[in-house]
Specification:
Elements: H1 2-19, H2 22-33, H3 38-45, H4 49-66
Helix pairs in contact: 2-4, 3-4
């Protein structure tokens, strides 16, 4: 049933967020849930934009792995 599938996806999303490091979680939530700009997130975290970009890349990869995204699976 569709609602059970939706609930399962929401639970996977929430549980995967909990597995991230605090900084990674803040970045994912800041960008993709709250819609904050890179400048705002960098300011909150106390890092430069270049540091934030590196952290963002790693955060996305780690989150995708936790979500079991096919494009990040080992071949």
């Amino acid at each position: 049933n569709l609602s059970n599938k939706f609930i399962a996806y929401v639970e996977l999303f929430e549980n995967s967020l909990k597995e991230l490091e605090d900084v990674e979680r803040e970045i994912i939530i800041g960008y993709f849930v709250q819609g904050y700009s890179g400048n705002k997130i960098a300011s909150v975290l106390g890092v430069s934009i270049s540091q934030l970009n590196r952290l963002k890349k790693n955060s996305i990869i780690n989150f995708a792995l936790l979500l079991d995204c096919e494009c990040y699976r080992d071949e």
